[in-house]
Amino acid sequence: MENGGGHLEAKIETLLNVEKQMRQAGDVVGTRKAVTDILQLCFDAGAWKTLNDQIVLISKRRGQLKQAVQAMVQQAMQYIDQTPDLDTKVELIKTLNNVSAGKIYVEIERARLIKKLAKIKEEQGLIAEAAELMQEIAVETFGAMAKTEKIAFILEQVRLCLDREDYVRAQILSRKISPRVFEADTSKEKKKPKEGESIVEEPPADIPSLLELKQIYYQLMIRYYVHSNDYLEICRCYKSIYEIPSVKEDPALWIPVLRKICWYLVLSPHDPMQSSLLNSTLEDRNLSEIPYFKSLLKQLVTMEVIQWTALWDTFKEEFESEKTRFGGSLGEKATEDLKLRVIEHNILVVSKYYSRITLKRLADLLCLTTQEAEKHLSDMVVSKALVAKIDRPMGVVCFQVAKDSNDILNTWASNLEKLLDLVEKSCHQIHKETMVHKAAVLKV
């Protein structure tokens, strides 16, 4: 390379003069060819430093055509994977990144360059640097980028944020993707762009399909919700994965997912959404393949008190085997939450059958001490899961809904109206009987 250095420079100088003439004449095709020929010369000679210098030089030439810069960046990107070592590769990526910064016509190329550079940083163990690099790019504003490539890029941003435990930024980035985007019908033929519309580029071959991206999205969201122990949202994520055709058609894939749906349903606090999911899961025919879980969900739907010890003895082994798949951080917390959900279910059952009950009797039904029963009952009242009042001196719990003055007056007015109707009917009956009796006396 050293011996041919002067020869290479002479050739480049000749082509630069050609490029200048073409550029000044406004010849797009000629300028583009001259630029790409210069890069090809450098590449063939293995002169990587010269290649970087020429890229910077060409991009800064006065009145440089957009098409020439675009062609140059696209041409140089093909050389990235053919660099002799990592340092040369990083240097070329950084050069192309600096050249394409702030230029809308090469924004997609810049996004791909940043992604490559972030991957290198991640492989070196620099997760924070990789995440910061990726956050610089707002691909959601790129009109010409394919939808799947945009989603894949944002998901990569979310993954890196989760890897560096930046959960707040991960949530913000994840909101850039609407779950409805995965429901789009990909089978429809693509419409030809109308005149004036921006042409959307085809995504690179390594970008996953929309359904594969859907699975990646929900797996990342599960990682986020596991951090905050939001069982219901985790359950909904697994439900969405369960609905993916490729998963639903393979029992080896859907059985583990359905097991997780069941466990997270059981661990979710009682509310209308949880109740709706519980009933829809029970109606699923596939649940008969895992009868253990069907009986577990049925116990939650049935308005009967569940004995914690009996339930734990039955499902302990299943729960322990699943615990490792929940994620290490859940461990004992999941066991505590399961017991708490059983207590909450039992309190709701008691509130359905009793209008008033002593605290002692409530504690006996829940297999708890009086203090524990009172605490759990108070927590449920605070979270508005049920309405109850505790008379602590008397030790009595009242589950009746407190009525305001308007409700009391309306009830009283309604009762008074019923009473007057009854009096009127009674008077009418007495009058009728009297008339019949008088008629019988006159006949005699």
Question: Can you characterise this structure?
Answer:
- With 444 residues, the chain is mainly α.
- The chain has 20 helices and three strands.
- The protein has a three-stranded antiparallel sheet.
- Strand 2 and strand 3 form a beta hairpin.
- Helix 9 (167-174) runs antiparallel to helix 10.
Brief digest:
By secondary structure, this protein is mainly alpha-helical.
Summarize the biggest pleated sheet: 3 strands, antiparallel
Estimate what percentage of residues fall within beta strands.
under 5%
Structural class: mainly alpha
Q: How many helical stretches?
A: 20
Helicity range: 55-70%
Describe the secondary-structure layout:
Elements: H1 5-25, H2 28-45, H3 48-60, H4 66-77, H5 86-100, H6 107-123, H7 127-135, H8 147-163, H9 167-174, H10 210-227, H11 231-242, H12 245-248, H13 251-267, H14 272-282, H15 291-301, H16 308-326, H17 331-353, E1 356-358, H18 359-366, H19 370-382, E2 389-391, E3 396-398, H20 405-443
Antiparallel strand pairs: 1-3, 2-3
List keywords for this structure.
20 helices; 3-stranded antiparallel beta sheet; elongated; 444 residues; mainly alpha
